[in-house]
Amino acid sequence: MTADDQRWRPRRRLRLLATDTAIQDGQIPRPTVGEVGRFWLLFNEVPPDDSDPTLSTIEADAEPLAPPVLQPSPDSPRPSPRWWEWRILLHGDGWEATWYSRRPAVGRVRLTGRLVGDFSYATTGSARGRVLSARRISAVRHESGVLAELDLDDVPPPPLRPSIVPATISAHGHQLWLADRELPQVVRLDDQGLTEFVLPGRIYPNPSGHPWQVHADAEGCWTAGWDGIYRCANSGNVATV
After folding, report:
1. What is the pTM of this model?
2. Where exactly are the structural domains of the chain?
């Protein structure tokens, strides 16, 4: 792409509904005009409705993420039939969103629905942009929240990640143990300084709660994650339990 192409390329904009529950839980920022934020995104396919300002028609590349899951019928006086659900990651122009679809899809797709700023554990997709507009939307046909429009181009480069982002801590005596929010990594702080322990575990690319829990004792620290339990010894050794 030439410099002239870049100069005349229209800015990429994205409309999303930031839900109250995700904002109150601290999963996403409250959209504020002029500020830059990162929003975890879900896509809900919805029939076209010109009266619903939360809907958009998007084009994206569909990437299946997992085999389909048979969803149970809800507990109600009139239970609906069970259905198969595919988890698909949509790759848009400057954004990604997870789509829980009732039909399989792959390749380039054109869909009408709602991009929702939601909880990180429900999606690996996100968008980062400067908030151009934000207005309150009450719950009628969807969850209440803030309807925002993002400028995906008017953003500075993301900051470099620190070597560790503390999520959970545990102390014993003069030792303080910290587990990283996303990386399989534990750090010990004591009178001798800082010691890093790398665990042979999964990397969680988004802050999905607290994947690593730590419990310190006189000999070291137990670390429990979604994919295993590890023992970090004061000697510096790491063992899988």
Report:
1. 0.76
2. 3-71+80-151, 166-240
